[in-house]
Amino acid sequence: MSAQVVKVLAALDVGGTTMGYSYKDLRDYAKEVQFPEWGPHKGNKTRSCVLLTPNRLFHSLGYEAERKFAELQKTGESPAWFYCQNVKRILTDKQVGQ
Known about the structure:
Blueprint: E1 8-14, E2 18-25, E3 45-47, E4 49-52, E5 58-61, H1 63-75, E6 82-85, H2 87-93
Antiparallel strand pairs: 1-2, 2-3, 4-5, 4-6
């Protein structure tokens, strides 16, 4: 069985408090850009936060990252994890080369 290559155009919107994404399957130009729903509010945006494991591997983002980090705080495991809120501010506050 051979793998099929699918070309997709994707965009990530990282805002001060929320983030979202959209995509378009380039095989079908007539099809509209997709804005998937995520999170408990069924909107196309989620909180601008990221959670990394103690090994600094990606775990989750948005509402799922908030939920998991709150759970880790209750069990006392949170100090080993890396939780980042307001991702845009962190990205824009860093100077190139630092």
